[in-house]
Specification:
The protein has 119 residues and is mainly beta. The chain contains no helices and 10 strands. The protein has a single domain, classed as Beta Barrel (Cathepsin D, subunit A, domain 1). A hairpin with a 4-residue loop joins strand 9 (95-100) and strand 10 (105-110). Residues 1-109 form the Peptidase A1 domain. This is Peptidase A1 domain-containing protein. Belongs to the peptidase A1 family.
């Protein structure tokens, strides 16, 4: 993410301790919509790359009370989770999650979660 920000009007906001990685603009951001155009979509690969999760900036950025944009995905090693990474609920908005308990797998699909699915 940082490499894609070179030449953009954002600077590291190290003074913001809300999350480990934050950026600030010339003035505080009021919403993700004000900053999302500076960021590219992310693709997270799971397992051997067979499962992928595409995330738009709205699904991985959080604007703090200080008006900074922060990465909403945490490095598990820094959070004492070992090899695991923590993906917050912001990343799963507008996703329908399917649990297969027998195969011990999960899946997801983009969905309009403002409306209930038809049964």
């Amino acid at each position: 993410v940082r490499a894609d920000l070179k030449g953009k009007p954002l600077k590291d906001a190290v003074e913001d301790k809300s999350l480990p990685i934050c950026w600030k603009g010339a003035k505080p951001f009021k919403s993700v919509h004000e900053v999302k155009n500076h960021f590219k979509p992310l693709q997270l690969n799971f397992g051997k790359g067979n499962a992928q999760l595409q995330l738009l900036p709205e699904a991985y950025l959080i604007v703090t009370k200080h008006g900074n944009a922060c990465l909403g995905i945490l490095n598990g090693g820094e959070m004492r989770l070992g090899e695991l990474n923590l993906i917050g609920d912001i990343s799963m908005q507008d996703k329908m999650v399917i649990y297969d308990n027998e195969k011990k797998q999960i899946g997801w699909v983009t969905a309009d979660c403002d409306r209930l699915p038809k049964s």
